[in-house]
Design brief:
Blueprint (H helix, E strand, L loop, with lengths): L1 H23 L12 E5 L2 H10 L1 H4 L3 H8 L12 E6 L3 E7 L14 E2 L2 E5 L29 E5 L12 E8 L2 E8 L4 H4 L6 E2 L11 E5 L3 H11 L7 H7 L2 E9 L2 E8 L2 H7 L6 E5 L2 E5 L5 H6 L10 E5 L2 E5 L2 H12 L8 H9 L3 E2 L1 E5 L1 H9 L17 E8 L2 E9 L10 E8 L4 E10 L4 E8 L3 E5 L5 E6 L9 E3 L8 E6 L2 E6 L10 E2 L9 E3 L8 E6 L2 E5 L22 E5 L2 E7 L4 E4 L21 E3 L2 E5 L5 E4 L5 E4 L8 E4 L4 E5 L2 E4 L2 E4 L9 E5 L2 E8 L4 E5 L11 E2 L5 E3 L7 E8 L2 E7 L1
Antiparallel strand pairs: 1-2, 1-6, 2-3, 3-5, 4-5, 6-7, 7-8, 8-20, 9-17, 10-11, 10-18, 11-12, 12-16, 13-14, 14-15, 15-16, 18-19, 19-20, 21-50, 22-23, 23-24, 24-25, 26-27, 27-28, 28-29, 30-31, 31-32, 33-34, 34-35, 36-37, 37-38, 38-39, 40-41, 41-42, 42-43, 44-45, 45-46, 46-47, 48-49, 49-50
Length: 760
């Protein structure tokens, strides 16, 4: 018996060891050794959205690489990280965990090893899969940001571009920008800046354009010594040594008249003294002297290929800067823009970019639209036009040598208007994979302390989209969401969940799109109204109320029926039940076809109302401390907490839509919008029901004419807000979704597209 037990134990241990070996394999272990390019896609749905919604990424080769060598990205279903590798010998190779491959056609045994799936475009059934490679990508796992849109490794001997080679970077995208951050794996930057710490760059203060670059150094002798080791042909004259030791930054400024070399001085008096032999005055321009310069060879002999080959003949001193150029027109242009404060450092868009990037740098480069086009064309399937890039002004990149690491940061961002008088600004649009259905909502994200966007498409895919337009995740639901979603804190720990109903289910999912324990709950009979969520005492002991035609079912936070709640009725409920707390009492109120029903917590009648009504599809509100709605003839119906009924004829007709808070009632019919007692005559159109928002101590009333695609905002006195109407095809959601003061609103812009605006 002991021998049998020992044998079983050994078998279990052996199987366990084998299983551990399988699960310990990493996808990076299978990268082909010759791979010059490795792309790690962290979440395929986020990547898909980025390709669709970012105009720059849409034209790159990223999508064609996948679709030409694997399959259509719309058909590709991978639930975990995917590596895309390219090497001259291995060609394109795709690697992921086998458990993450949900496209079954790929799951052949010959494409798997140690729980890893490997697919090669030229050898789809390669049985010689090798693991435990020594590819450099493996060493940089700590650099990778798992929340990035994708991460990228690139190193090739064919590319001589010092800025964009030998890099491993994280790429974060939204519809308006591409941001990169990472490090160099092996480059000359380490040698150029050996022993030199990053410092603040100042040349943008003198540059009139967004096409310049500069090298920053705290000690010229060390800097020259480093570049001399890389280029033995360099030599430095006594004049050069004296002059450049008075400087701390040098760079090239490209203008429409030609290139200039700009220098930032440590001490302008010392720099002028070093230039004392070069004082022949050519002319003055706006009180700035322009001098002749005879040592035109010093830049190329001292800095070599770091600076453009320019025939320097002139120079001027402007504050702490010295500008060298071939022609007077170049210096005059730079001088003029500086005096008129039109230099780059005063450009609001450049300021925004610089605020995001690092203050202290070793090297910085900013691209004009034309220069950016040349860079992007290398990575695109077809050339960009300058018109396509007009809104991407001041794309900037930085190299930062820090200890034994050289960092690369960059930002390509859509240009924002500096017109401070504009009250409404478009932030971004996001295109979904199918037409939008239901309501677009903001939901709180407890991780970011901000708000995200929740929206569903006609394929019943639910999207969570960040407030910068990045798809965080996508989840398939069994049907359309009924009404609005609600957020709850089921576990009372500050981590929020999203609750809602579809036709046969109650759903509660967390911020990552995963179901919480005990949910979803499935029903045999259809749910006929949106899910109501009550927190009677604000203690997070939630109640979930489900309507099934004439029946009400109540559930607790564990998904169990609340036994103390019973409601019996023979007629259908036509509005979503609402919880109203007034004078320390709880009321559950809703409409039936000809009744107003007001219950207590147990489902028993709290306010009996014997009078019969003729209701249609209007909602029930609590206005002026009374339960308020309208009948099909347009009469306003109100019931107080003692059950007394009053009716008012206010000129509303049978097609009137209302929305109300306790203090204000808004109505719309025909071409009339009534806010309180104020009537506003609108253009004739097809209007959504009005909505009322109270934010920043202000009341906002919104309405959309879907016929002309116009959104209108009014204040509580009926005045149209500045810059309205704006474009939109649905009603809006208005919130403060981030940490700044302006509000944001989101709506539908096309059948399959949403748009977000900022309201100043």
């Amino acid at each position: 018996m002991k021998k049998v037990s020992l044998l079983i134990t050994l078998i279990i241990l052996g199987f366990s060891c084998q299983n551990n070996n399988q699960t310990s394999s990493k996808i990076a272990d299978f990268i082909p050794e010759d791979s010059e390019l490795v792309i790690q896609i962290n979440l395929l749905e986020t990547f898909k959205s980025a390709i669709i919604n970012n105009p720059l990424l849409k034209k790159t080769k990223l999508l064609t690489i996948i679709e030409d060598n694997l399959m259509s990205i719309d058909s590709l279903n991978i639930s975990g990280p995917l590596l895309v590798c390219y090497g001259p010998k291995s060609d394109y190779t795709f690697i992921s965990k086998r458990k993450h491959i949900l496209t079954k056609t790929f799951l052949r045994d010959e494409n798997s090893k140690d729980s890893i799936w490997v697919f090669n475009s030229k050898k789809p059934q390669d049985k010689s899969i090798k693991s435990k490679q020594t590819h450099p990508f493996v060493k940089y796992d700590a650099v990778l940001n798992k929340n990035a849109t994708f991460s990228l490794y690139f190193a090739t001997k064919k590319n001589k571009n010092l800025l964009f080679n030998n890099i491993i970077i994280n790429v974060d995208t939204n519809p308006n920008s591409i941001a990169i951050s990472g490090i160099y794996t092996d480059s000359k930057w380490m040698e150029i800046y050996n022993g030199i710490l990053p410092k603040k760059s100042y040349l943008s203060k003198i540059s009139p354009s967004s096409n310049f670059y500069s090298f920053v150094y705290s000690n010229f002798d060390e800097f020259y010594g480093n570049i001399k080791k890389l280029d033995s042909t360099l030599f430095i004259s006594e004049f050069s040594n004296t002059f450049f030791n008075t400087t701390k930054e040098i760079g090239a400024i490209k203008t429409k008249f030609g290139d200039a070399i700009g220098i930032h001085s440590i001490d302008i008096n010392s720099s002028n003294e070093a230039l004392s032999s070069q004082q022949e005055l050519i002319k003055s321009f706006r009180s700035i002297p322009i001098f002749k310069f005879d040592h035109n060879s010093i830049f190329n002999s001292t800095f070599g290929e770091l600076l453009p080959k320019t025939d320097i003949k002139l120079y001027s001193v402007i504050n702490d800067f010295i500008i060298f150029a071939e022609k007077e027109s170049i210096i005059e242009y730079i001088t003029s823009t500086f005096i008129n404060k039109n230099n780059l450092s005063n450009d609001q868009n450049y300021i925004t970019i610089k605020d995001i990037l690092s203050d202290e740098v070793s090297y910085s480069k900013t691209y004009s639209i034309k220069a950016l086009k040349n860079v992007l064309d290398e990575f695109s399937i077809s050339p960009f036009s300058e018109e396509e890039l007009n809104s991407y002004k001041n794309a900037s990149f930085q190299v930062i040598k820090d200890d034994n690491v050289v960092h690369l940061n960059g930002l390509i961002q859509k240009y924002s208007s500096t017109n401070n008088l504009q009250k409404v600004k478009e932030q971004f649009t996001v295109k979904l994979e199918a037409p939008i259905i239901g309501k677009i909502q903001f939901v709180s994200n407890h991780r970011t302390k901000q708000k995200d966007i929740l929206v569903q498409d006609a394929n019943n895919q639910l999207y969570l989209i960040s407030n910068t337009g990045t798809v965080r995740w996508k989840k398939k639901l069994p049907g359309p969401i009924l009404g609005e979603v609600h957020q709850v804190d089921l576990f009372k720990n500050g981590r929020l969940q999203i609750s809602f109903a579809t036709q046969n289910h109650i759903h509660i999912i967390d911020i990552f799109g995963n179901y919480v324990k005990n949910f979803p709950i499935k029903f045999n009979d259809n749910i006929s109204k949106p899910l109501s969520v009550f927190d009677y005492d604000k203690n997070k002991n939630y109640r979930f109320l489900v309507v099934q035609n004439s029946n009400l079912l109540m559930f607790d936070s564990n998904g169990k029926r609340v036994k103390g709640f019973k409601y019996n009725s023979s007629s259908n409920i036509i509005t979503q039940p609402k919880h109203i707390r007034y004078q320390n009492k709880d009321y559950i109120a809703f409409l039936k076809v000809n009744q107003i029903e007001i219950l207590n917590r147990r489902g028993k009648t709290r306010i009996p109302i014997d009078e019969k009504f003729n209701f249609t599809n209007q909602d029930l509100f609590f206005n002026d401390n009374m339960f308020t709605t309208i009948e099909d003839n347009g009469d306003l119906v109100q019931v107080d907490i003692k059950g007394r009924v009053s009716k008012k004829t206010l000129g509303f007709n049978s097609q009137t839509d209302i929305f109300a808070s306790n203090k204000l009632l808004v109505a719309q019919w025909d071409n009339i919008l009534q806010i309180g007692s104020k009537k506003i005559e609108l253009e004739y159109g097809n209007f959504t029901p009005p909505k009322l928002f109270y934010l920043n101590d202000k009341i906002f009333i919104t309405i959309t004419d879907v016929q002309s695609s116009k959104i209108w905002f009014f204040d509580s006195k009926g005045k149209i807000l500045d810059d309205f109407p704006v474009y939109g095809t649905s009603n809006v959601e208005l919130e403060n979704i981030d940490k700044d003061l302006p509000l944001e609103f989101v709506c539908q812009s096309n059948a399959d597209e949403l748009i977000m605006y900022q309201l100043y």
